[in-house]
Amino acid sequence: MQQQQPTEIKKSNGKAMIVVKNLCMSFGNNHVLKNFNLRLNSKENLVVLGRSGSGKSVLIKCIIGLLTPDSGEIIVFGNDVGGLSHHELDMLRTEIGFLFQSNALYDSMTVRENLEFPLRRHWFELTQKEVDDMVMEALENVNLGHTAEMMPAELSGGMAKRIALARTMILRPKIILYDEPTTGLDPITAREIEGLILKLHDKYQTSSIIISHDMTCVKNTADRVALLLDGKCYTEGSFEDLKKSEDEHVKQFFE
Amino acid sequence: MDIIAKTRDFLNQTGYIARFTGQLFTLAAKPPYEIKEFLSQCYIIGYRSLPLVALTGFIMGLVLTMQLRPSLVYYGVQSQLPVMVGIAIVREIGPVITALIFAGKIGSSIGAELGSMKVTEQIDAMEVSGTNPYKYLVATRVVAGTLMLPVLTMLADAISLFGAYVGVNISAVTNFRLFFMQILKTLEFGDVLPAFIKTFFFGFAVSIVGCYKGYNSNRGTRGVGNSANTAVVLSSVLIFIIDLLAVQITALLGLN
Asked: Same structural domain for residues B96 and B22?
């Protein structure tokens, strides 16, 4: 089993997996990000906290190259995302997992086909048995081994989220970007998803940016929290540090 | 001011469509090719459209014959019925009606499918997994649509002529071989080839419009509905425009 490795992409050899410098992004007159700075360290779970519409999702969509920022730099594994060609960006994306808030499962494919899709397109040398084994391992990781032949429409919200997580992990990415992983789920399922995030983080030694405003999720998953306010990184620190903060803007998230 | 804004909007849209179409010849022409998805689309676009095209083709031939017959009998030239029906079907009615049915079935289906994928972030999911969604979704559908419509039109023409034969036999008994020999003897190279070639353009127009509308869909479920709807309307109009141009070009080349 051999992964097709991007030859053009530099590999991370330092501690920073992602560095965001002076990022600006606007939609018309709505300036969402204004000189935003951020750093994701190796094997770290960084939670970006902020109000709805504050630009959290825009930030990670810029990181993965789905949105093009107005200005600023995004360095992933030492590569400037804005300077990569289509092919180089595609190769870089195989190293980054992205869990969508809406799950974004391919609804015309079964769960198995959803998981096979990235494998078939990037790991060409896999045999059918290896693909089957990897799909089953990914499904077992999220405790949904029995759903392989189901269609996404047949899954509950929590199951769909876990399948989406399994698909995100199947290429063994080094970085995972989670877009509000617990939004819309009941508290029990939300805690299960948090547990899976931590379990997969430990198992595959990933670095993650988790976008959230669910404070329980922030508390349970964050090694470090960055507060996005008015388009800037207002403050950052551990969950406990921010909880003790006397700053009015910070306190309102913890009350 | 309003006219200036509308003109600018129209020019912007034209530019986007041109760039979207141009990508087909740049991005999609480069390997690796999406052969499996292309074959899958040929099956969906071609094979699955066959029953509808066959049924409408048969009815088209039957009705055309039954409508023409009284007029020809009135002028005493009913023996020319197979020739008239044959030329009408092969040159014009077969390609255009099949393309319009194709626009209704495939154009709307592509528009709705891609539109739905767009608003549910499935296209974004494909992109972040390192797959070029334009190559995977658009190029395969456009090439499959461009190649399948001519095949469907040929089949529709054949079934339509059989419908015409049935129509003739409702009022009078006609020999099957004689009926078709009369048609084939009359049809010329200039009747068949331009009609066949224009179906490639019809197929391309329907597929690219469906893909463009779906791929650029927004505003949720209403946007998906609008994409499907405008895909059909715009591609139907384009079919008539292409047909008009094809007739003019054929006349200029002396193939009429």
From this structure: no
- Spatial neighbors of A60 by CB under 8 A, at least 6 apart, are A48, A98, A177, A179, A209, A211
Provide the ipTM.
Answer: 0.86
Q: Tell me how far apart the alpha carbons of residues B48 and A10 are, in angstroms, rounded to a whole number.
A: 47
The list of chain B residues with pLDDT below 50 reads none
Judge if B1 and B118 occupy the same domain: no
Interfacial residues of B (vs A; Cβ cutoff 8 Å): 27, 113, 116-117, 120-122, 124-132
d(CA A88, CA A6): 7
CA distance A71 to A22: 7
Per-block mean pLDDT, blocks of 10 residues, chain A (255 long): 40 70 90 90 91 90 93 91 88 92 93 93 86 93 91 93 93 92 89 91 91 90 90 88 86 83
Domain, as residue range, for A141? 16-254
| Residue spans of alpha helices (H) in chain B | 2-26, 35-45, 50-74, 81-88, 94-102, 108-119, 122-128, 133, 140-171, 176-186, 189-215, 220-252
CA gap A108, A152 in Å, rounded: 8
Whether A63 is in a domain gets the answer yes
Q: How many of the other CB atoms lie within 10 Å of CB of A234?
A: 16
Give domain status of residue A2, yes or no.
no
**A166-208 pLDDT tens trace:** 999 999 999 999 999 998 888 998 999 999 999 989 988 999 9
Size of interface A-B (CB pairs under 8 A): 49
Question: What pTM does this model have?
Answer: 0.85
Q: Which of A86, A107, A117 faces B129 most closely, judged by CB atoms?
A: A117
Residues B19 and B83 in one domain: no
* CATH at A151: 3.40.50.300
Nearest residue of A to residue B27, measured between CA atoms: A86
The structural domain count of chain B equals 2
Give how far A106 is from chain B: nearest CA, Å: 6
A167 CA to chain B: closest CA distance, Å?
Answer: 9
Mutate to test the interface with A, among B119, B123, B128 (most CBs of A within 10 A): B128
- CA angle at B231 for the pair B228 and B232, rounded to the nearest 5°: 90
Expressed as residue numbers, the domain containing B119 is 34-252
Q: How far apart are CA A129 and CA A115, in angstroms?
A: 14
Contact at CB, B124 and A100, closer than 8 angstroms: yes
Nearest CA in chain A to B117: A106
- How many domains does chain A divide into? 1
| Shared domain check, B90 and B214 | yes
Q: Is there a contact between B129 and A64 if contact means CB atoms under 8 Å apart?
A: no
Candidate from A86, A102, A117 with C-beta closest to B132: A86
B239 shares a domain with B174:
yes
